[in-house]
Amino acid sequence: MPNAKALSQFPNEKQVLRELQRIIFGKHVKCPHCQRQIYVIELKKNRLWRCRKCRKRFSITSVNWLKGMKISGTKLWMLVWCWQQKLGVLQVSGLCLTSIPTIRRYYELFRDNLQINCDDIILEGIVQMDEMFVKGAFILGAKDIIRKRIKMNVVFKKSPEKHDAMNMIFQHVKPGSTLFTDGSKIYRKSEDWWPITHKSECHSKFEFSQTSEVEGMWGVLRTFIRRMYHHVTLKKLVKIIAEFEARFSFKELFKYALNFLKNSLSSVPLAF
Ligand SMILES: [Zn+2]
Predict the structure, then answer these.
(1) Which residues surround ligand 1, an ion (CB under 5 A)?
(2) What's the pTM value of the predicted model, to 2 decimals?
(3) Which residue, 255, 264, 252, 257, is CA-closest to 15?
(4) Does the residue 132 lie in any domain?
(5) Distance 58 CA to ligand 1 centre (A)
(6) Is residue 272 in a domain?
(7) Are residues 96 and 133 in the same domain?
(8) How is residue 29 annotated by DSSP?
(9) Number of separate domains in the chain
(10) What is the pLDDT of residues 110-145, one digit of tens each?
(11) How far is CA 202 from CA 14, 106, 180, 188, 192, in A?
């Protein structure tokens, strides 16, 4: 393999399969159909099992989003790492020797299977808020500039209304915070509705300083989307925004491949 030396940083196939088994089935593999352990026999080490009672086979890829996986475990691990590092698909293709459509497909799978909840994010202290227009919608964004936390909402309207902004403030800005916005009327008198100090500035007068962080965030978002996801429909945009938020608020999920795999593959998520 041409990239062998650089690739030695990744775990080998045996190690990956062992980790995947541990995440998905635990140390002692139970049958996913009857939940019993005693009838399970291992057909392929850390990979394929059969339940003698149910007469069914199951594998690490048959009960989750890895279904139909055609790449090796090591390659999966590498793709997760590349995605966590926000590497562009061309770079990844050169490193992993994998086709670009395959990389894009896995990037989407990773993104869609993040088990996170950004609804509870609370911004406090000094918060900047702004809006960005995209085709067919707009995005409301807010940033807690001290803790570097962000919250974004995609609103499927042509132009933002006051209650869209207020709703976001009610849900995500802690009482007592100071809110900086542009002069848009959607933020006007927001301090009458929520216990915050509101300061607005007029962009046409070249006052950019107090919302510069949240405006910078739009640039980061644009670059992120262009590099990672190429074509973006409105439906996908919501999920991409969720990933973007997660990268700020759940940093540990993007640190090690194992952390992400544990998060996205661990057993059945609870409904409540
Ligand atoms: Zn069974």
Answers:
(1) 31, 33-34, 51, 53-54
(2) 0.87
(3) 257
(4) yes
(5) 10
(6) no
(7) no
(8) -
(9) 2
(10) 999 999 888 889 999 999 999 999 888 999 999 999
(11) 60, 43, 11, 12, 20
